[in-house]
Amino acid sequence: MGRPGLDRRQLLAAMGGLTAAGSFGFAALGTGADALASGADTRVRYWNLFSGGDGYNMIAMLDSFRKDNPGIDVKDSTLQWGSPFYTKLAMAAAGNRAPDLGVMHLGRVTGFSPGRLLDPWDMDLLARYGVREQDFNPALWKRAVIDGKLYALPLDIHVQLCFYRRDVLRKAGLLDADGRMVPVTSADEWFDVLKEAKAATGKGLQTIGLWVNDQNFQWWFFVAFYTQLGGTWFNADHTEVTFDTDKATRVLEFLRRHITDGYADPGFAGGAGAEQFVNGGPFVWEGNWSVPVFDGAKLDYGAMPLPPVFGKQATHAESHAFVLPHQAGRGGPGNEGAHRLAAYVVRHARQWAAGGHIPAFTPTLSTAAYRELKPQSEYVSAMDHQATEPKVWFAGSTGILAQRVGPIVVSSTLGSAKPDAVARRMRSTLARLLASKNPMDGKTAAEGGAVA
Question: How far is CA 332 from CA 238, 326, 339, 438, in A?
Answer without folding.
Answer: 38, 14, 11, 32
